[in-house]
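I'll show a sample.
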Amino acid sequence: MTEEREPALPLGASEETTALTVGEAAVVRSGFEALRSGEHPTIEDLASHSGLAPSMVGEIVGAFMRTGRADVNGDGCLTGIVGLTTKTTRHRFTFGGTSLFTWCAFDAVGIPAAFQVDAAVHTTCGYCQGPLEVYIVAGSPPKVSPIRGWLPHIENCGNVRAEFCPDANLFCSDEHLGAWRAAAGIEGQAMDLHALSNLGRRSWGPVDAGH
């Protein structure tokens, strides 16, 4: 059921680009490492771990925040960045004994795929809200699965969490995806788990490049 058109994912900080720059990838990598450990890093922490100047890190995080790609708490410490968050959501993946929340179902599949780890993805069907589990081994999902994904097509996405994430979901089956599409009337891309994983590797690959 996968269509040929592939969505342009709004991962970069600028509204004019969807790709992470080298500097952005370094900041996201540092943010991921901290959030994975349950820490909420400051701009100075991110600068120290990324090797970038605090002023540059501040500009990157600020741009991410303006476009819904990063979140901070009242103390200005990072709580989420480019998909990964310490705030509780209905999407998460578990690996190495650690459970990590994400902003959308695509994040929960794409991030462990990009990092080529073993992970258990937990989310809910975008139609019936029933629980869904996907087991990823070395970054790859099951070869055969009825589960389908949906990524919305959004031109000039201004805020990822507000405009893209709410509809970037998994569904129990083609039937449930079809029923949701008929009711929602939202343009987008239907993808199987392998297509989602491949897109995740390309999207978050630069973040893993420094490992």
In short: The chain has a mean pLDDT of 90.
